[in-house]
Structure formats: C-alpha cells, structure tokens
Amino acid sequence: MSTTSEFYDYDAVPVEKGEEVLGEVASKDPDNIYAAVSGGDDSITALHFAHQSSAIELDGVLHVNTGFGIPKTREYVKEQCEKFGLDFVPIGNHNARFSHERYETLVKQFGFPGATIVAHSQIRHNLKDKPFGRFRNHLDGDLALISGVRRFESERRYEKLGREGIQTVNGITWASPLVDFTDKDVSAYQQHHQIEENPVSALLCASGECMCGAFEDRQNLPLLEEYFPRFAQKIFKLEWDVLERAARGEIKTQYALWAHGSVDEGEYAARTDVDQASLMCSDCEDKCPSEPYQITGNPLSPAEKYLQEHDLSELHQWPFYCAVCDLVVEDQLSHREEVHPFDAEDGLAGEWDMRRIELDASHESGIIITEPNGWDIDPSQITRDEEAASRRKHQYYYENISLFHCDEHDHSWEPYNDGPVMQCQDCFAFNLSEYDPENPGPPAVEDSDDDLEKLTPDQEEAQRIHQQLSEFGA
User: For residues 179 and 149, what is the distance between their CA atoms, to the nearest angstrom?
Assistant: First the structure.
C-alpha cells in the first residue's frame, strides 16, 4: 500500500477500536507480548500502533524467516525494531528449522507448491508453523501476539480472529488493533505517523518475507529479476534443480516452475482451513492469481525456455534402473507416465524406485552400479530411533537408508528378485553387471544398419541400453 500524496482523513481512522483490542489483551495479563511482523503494510502499522499504545508493552518483534524471502524485507523489519527500541527476534533457518524442512529441500522432493493442497500445506507447515511452534515451546509463560489482520482485507482470517479483533488459538492470544481498518485507514495512519514503507512491499504489494510461490503471480519474475536479481537467480537455479527431478519422473512436470498455478475458491478454502495457519500466512490470499500459468509466449526463466524448446525426456541422456520392474529404461519419464502414473492409488503402478546408473562409481568399482537408496534423502531425515521412523512420514531408520556407496565399494551383494541383478545389503545400490536385456527386455541384436532398420521400438530401446551398458565393460 503505497503512501502517495493523496490525502486521507486521519480523524476517521478507528483508533479507539484498536485501543479497545489492546486493552483486552492487557486484561488477560499475558507473560509475553510480541508483535508478529512480516514486513508488509498491515503488520508494520500494527507494530507502530501497539508500540505507541499505553495499554500494553511489547517484549519484542517476531519475524519468521522462511528461508526463501527477499532479504531486504528482513533488513527493513530489523531497522524498524531498532528505531522503536524493540528486540528483533528472527525465527527460521538457523534456530528453528531442520535442513529437511527448508524450502530448497522440500521443493526438490515435491516440486514447487501451488497446485495441490498437500504441497502448499506442507510448505507452510515447515516454513512457518514448525519454527513458530519450537519458539513457543521454549518460551516461559503464556503468549499474546499482535498482528495486522483486518476485516476488510480478509473475511476468512477476520472470522478466525473473532469479531472483536481478539481470539485464542492453540493457547496463543492473537489480537489485531487494525481489525476495523480499511485500506484508506491504513494509508491515513501511515501518513499521519510518517511510517516508512517497506520498499519490497511497495513494489510487490506483499511483504516478500515468503516467496514460496504458492500464491504468487509468475508474471512478477521480470520485476524480481530487475529489482532483486540475486533472489531471481535463486529461483532460476532452483527451477533447474526441480526440472532435473521432474525429468527423472520424481515430480510432476507441472510442478517444475515457481508460481506455476493458482487455485479455485473451493481448493483455497481447503488449504486455509487451519486457524493459526491463516493468521500466520497473512499475505497469501490477495496474491493468488486468477488462472494457472500457461507456458506460452516469451519464457520468464531458463527452465521455462527449456520446457518450451525441448521434450523433458531429453534432459537425462543416460539409462536408469527401475527396481520395481527390474528393468533398465532409457526414457524414465515415459516409463513413469505409462507404467507408474502419479494418480495410481495402489498396486504396482503406485510404486516408484528409479535409480540412476552411476558413471563414476561404476568406473571406480569395475561394476555397473546404481545410486544408493538414500540418494535423495537429507541427512537430518535419518534417525537412530526406529519407533520414531515408523511414526513419521519423512524420517528413516539409519539401518534402512544409505546416503553413500559402501567405503571403497566393499559391498555385500545378494541376489535381487532371484537375480541376475544384485543388491547391496548395506548401501542398497544395485549391481547390474550381469543384467540381461533379454530378460525381462527383448533380446539384443548385433549392431548393424540392416538389423537396426528391422527393429521394433522395444527392440531399439533394448539395443541402445545394451550398448550403453557395454561402455562400462560389462
């Protein structure tokens, strides 16, 4: 909300209502009172209102560092805290989030959020809910948080906050002195008190503290590239990482681009059907574009350009081994789509374990070897607590997962699926040295132009795989 020269009537601002809300907070006599500040216009205005009020005394300012926001916003919030003489309390990557909960790790595993309820809720839960919960657990006494939620901005969040601008959610008192403020009231208050606006908010109409892409407009990428080039490059690099995963069949292609789509009203309601989450994600609703992004026109990133000009199956020019089918495949993306579709609910088609054949490791060991089973696992996901691993979806018991091949390739090979493929019982990599393309694949033939012209598509694939495997010395 830009503070322009347009005049707004400060006398019409519902200051008395805001003071009533803070008075109600004071009557509860909480042990800790913090302002929850994202860096957007509403939260910074609520911070100023609470700071100048005689009803309460703030203990500090909480700022959730999602790990994927524009740094200028965090700097701005810190500067405002210094100006007000308040403690700046960042919650995020270095003090309240495990590495497997970080944005970069999550999107490499699941793709960019924005098209499914699960993806968005998981991102929000890891970037905001978990770090905030850990902060709360280490805080002595009860807690009250001052936010900038407004009835005129979001009817849904207003309902969760309560008609009087104060509500207790999961043992935490949330209160907003801006509950009855309109857009003009916020601007009038900012002008009257000469509140410095966050330059990121002025440009993007959002705080910029969380740029996960769930509700972002992809058309803002050129703007980010012009004014925040380092952050734009961070997005571009991550898109390539996710695109590589999509080309392996690990992620749906539609999730390979940042801010790739939007949601309809029903899905949005389902996504935000969590009280505290709605209060924490204060920017999301207004940023949601009206239509899913279409890959047409001028590409907005290198990854998008690649998708326009190439078939994604061209990205990996190397065979993979499908452990479920006991089959070496050259086009793992087509194999995923045809044999193991993402929407399968059960049975063989619902399983997926595709391993890349490791070139360097194969040369080092003298055998044709795949990745270990923990090739995509973050170290923080591994635990020695077997019971915890069985309870938690994204934790693994250390004896069942290996991030690396065995030292000096001292493997313990056992027949897999009755052979001839072998699997190491320590690192769980596969040994394909005795893999026979005739079983289960069609027979390989001699490499001659006449023979190749007579091959069926399946035989051509088997022939190419056989030739590539032979490069390892099999």
Answer: 6
* CA dist 212 → 120, 224, 391 (Å): 9, 14, 28
For the stretch 389-415, pLDDT in tens is 998 877 899 999 999 999 999 999 999
Model pLDDT for residues 305-337, shown as the tens digit of each residue: 999 999 998 998 889 999 999 999 989 999 998
Query: What does the alpha-carbon distance between residue 298 and residue 289 come to, in Å, rounded to a whole number?
Result: 19
Surface-to-core class of residue 271, CB atoms within 10 Å of its CB (0-12 exposed, 13-18 middle, 19+ buried)? buried
Of 248, 250, 405, which Cα lies nearest the Cα of 329? 248
Fold for 10-204, please state it. Rossmann fold (3.40.50)
Task: Say which residues have a Cβ less than 8 Å from residue 368's Cβ, sequence separation at least 6.
Answer: 357, 362, 431, 432, 433, 435, 469, 472, 474
Distance of CA 307 to the CA centre of its chain: 21
- SS3 for 90? strand
- In terms of phi and psi (left: phi > 0; alpha: psi -120 to 50; beta: otherwise), the region of 419 is left
Question: Is the separation of the CB atoms in 42 and 157 below 8 Å?
Answer: no
Record the tokens describing residue 340, joined without a space.
């193991």
- Quick one: CA dihedral 162, 165, 168, 172, positive or negative? positive
Q: Would you list the domain boundaries of the chain? A: 10-204, 218-277+297-328, 353-431
299 Cα distance to chain centroid: 22
The Cα–Cα gap between 402 and 372 comes to: 6
Helix (H, G, I), strand (E, B) or coil at 320: strand
AA letter at 457: P
5 CB-near residues (< 8 Å, 6+ apart) = none
